[in-house]
Amino acid sequence: MDKKQKTILAIAFIAIVGFVGLWNVDLSQGYLMISDLSSDSGRHVGYDVNTMGVIKDGTLHISTGGTSFTLLDLEDSSFEMNVEYTGSLPANLAEGQSISISGKMISSDLIEANRIVMGCPSKYSE
User: Fold this and answer.
1) How far is CA 45 from the centre of its chain?
2) Of 67, 91, 90, 78, nearest to 34 (Cα)?
3) pLDDT by residue (tens digit) across 17-69?
4) pTM of the entire predicted model
5) How far, in Å, CA of 28 to CA of 17, rounded?
6) What's the 3-state SS for the chain?
7) Average model confidence (pLDDT) across the chain
8) Which domains does the chain possess?
9) Under DSSP, is residue 124 helix (H, G, I), strand (E, B) or coil?
10) 66 and 112 in contact (C-beta within 8 Å)?
11) Cβ 39 vs Cβ 97: under 8 Å
12) Residue 27 and residue 81 in contact, taking contact as beta carbons nearer than 8 Å
C-alpha cells in the first residue's frame, strides 16, 4: 500500500469514527424563552423544545398519574406555558424554583416534558 492509499484510508477512518461518535449527540436548538414559544407557537407545535422558567406559585400538582405546573418566563412573567411531566421528579422540585425542561410542544400553551433539570441553588444569600 503506497502513501496516497494510506492517507485516504486514514481520512476515511477518521470520518467514520467522527460520524459514529456524533450519532447520538443532540444538535438541536438551544433554550428558547417562554415568550418566544408563545409568540411563534405555530412554528414549534409538534416539535421538541428546550426552555426554562420559574414554576408559578399555586400551580404545581403532583399525583400518581404525573406532574403538572405552569412555567413562567424568566424575563417577562406575563408569558406562561403549561407543562405535563410523567417521569421521576427531582428531589427539590417546588413552586418558585427555576427549572429547565425538554419535551414536545403539544399545543400553543402546553409542553409534554420528558426531562426536568432544576436550577442550582445559590450558596450565597443577601
Assistant:
1) 14
2) 78
3) 877 776 655 545 578 889 888 888 788 899 899 999 999 999 999 998 899 99
4) 0.70
5) 21
6) CCHHHHHHHHHHHHHHHHHHHCCCCCCCCCCECHHHHHHCHHHHCCCEEEEEEEECCCCCEEECCEEEEEEECCCCCCCEEEEEECCCCCCCCCCCCEEEEEEEEEECCEEEEEEEEECCCCCCCC
7) 85
8) 29-118 (2.40.50.140)
9) coil
10) no
11) no
12) no
For cell 399525583, the residue is 63
Stretch 96-113: mean pLDDT: 92
Q: Is 91 left (phi over 0), alpha (psi -120 to 50) or beta?
A: alpha
Burial of 84-120, coded b for 16+ CB within 10 Å and e otherwise, reads bbeeeeeeebeeebbbbbbbebeeeebbbbeebebee
In angstroms, the CA 99 to CA 102 distance is 10
Q: Are 96 and 68 in contact (CB under 8 A)?
A: no
pLDDT score at 60: 94
Is 4 strand, coil or helix?
Answer: helix
Query: Which amino acid appears at position 75 of this protein?
Result: E
Q: What is the CA radius of gyration of the chain?
A: 21
DSSP bridge pairs for 69: 83
